[in-house]
Amino acid sequence: MSRLIVVSNRVTLPQKSGDAPAGGLAVALQAALEERGGIWMGWSGKSSGAKEPAPLSMQEHGNITYALTDLTKTDVEEYYHGFANRVLWPLCHYRMDLADYGRKEMAGYFRVNRFFAHRLAPLIQEDDVIWVHDYHLIPLAAELRQMGLKNKIGFFLHIPWPPADVLFTMPVHEEIMRGLSHYDLVGFQTDHDLDNFGGGLVREGIGQRLSEGKFSSYGRVFKGGHYAISIETEQFAAFAQKAASNVMVRKAKQSVEGRDMIIGVDRLDYSKGITQRLDAFERFITMNPGYQNKVTYLQITPKSRSEVPEYEQMQRTVAEQAGRVNGAIGTVDWVPVRYINQSIARPVLAGLYRLSRIGLVTPLRDGMNLVAKEYVAAQDPENPGVLVLSRFAGAARELSGALLVNPYDIEGTAHAIARGLTMSLEERKQRWERMMEHLKVYDINRWCDDFLKDLTTG
Prior knowledge:
The protein is 44% helix and 19% strand. The chain is α/β, with parallel strands linked by helices. The longest helix has 21 residues, at 309-329.
């Protein structure tokens, strides 16, 4: 069996004893690497300042070698904070108004990808299979091909891929499309993302769709597919079941005694629709005053990319919005919105999901959204909660038991919250069982296996 080389912007090192369990993606990739033997290479998260980064830091753990590199301060600013997160991220989430394109940042993005390629190439053996992850590293295959590598190279995009009219607002869209053509397999989260990609090739006249999921572009033929990323379903369900004895979960249960809990869990990002969700919760209460003092909305929002100005502003906006809603509808003995601006360990989170009557997952745009899947997996089979899910999340293509909403429709989301809270036990069970059966089959390991099978065959 060929070795596997995984490349990502950041690397998930093995857990230390006592650490909270890693997320499903890290578990799946580490399992695939352990089985095949291989290397996981990426940025250490550290800056070398103005100095050239030291040689790769190599750490051996079992059958896996972790290869980490520092980046210069300029590289971090131009490649990561600049082009990746201020151009590609907003465009892929349909926010052309927030894209801040600059030639210096664009050059830094391609320069760092070249740097990654030069550090990775000496580690690669002739029959290694290479799997590159996410929008930070789109040009990596082109750089490796330029160096003469002919290995199988796959790419998976963890965020949405926009339609042509959005993508073409980026001045270097053709260079990005050319970069993707150098992979043997380009994977997306949903069939909609794959259609957007193929439509862009045809619209721009730079490629065409062939049969059997293949494309031709820039003189190369390559495969495209959609692979919905998932979670470690059975393990996460076990976390939730065991979490009832966790001290934090017990305290949370006591604090909402006699009230229904609604939960939202999101990284602090403008794509998540947090302010619209707060508005919808407020509208739900004003439309249904009988629920005053009978429901608590818990919003957990860890900080994210605070070095990027848009995210600093977002943090202030969400905090102010939560305070405004509490001031508008709260009472002396009831705080409607509990806003937590920090990370919560996954086992505790699983327990909080299980306590919640509604999982409110309403991003404005999301590649998949694993919170939706975690919420479903965490539920008590005898008394499951209701998932209220944005139709603009990739998960909406799979979770047919959710109540789908348009997050821009504040009143519509408010009605969905009311429906979820009044739904019969029988209907809740039917909806949950349908989703849980799907997640048991299509878990994170299935995602990993399907992608690697398609990459290495045909």
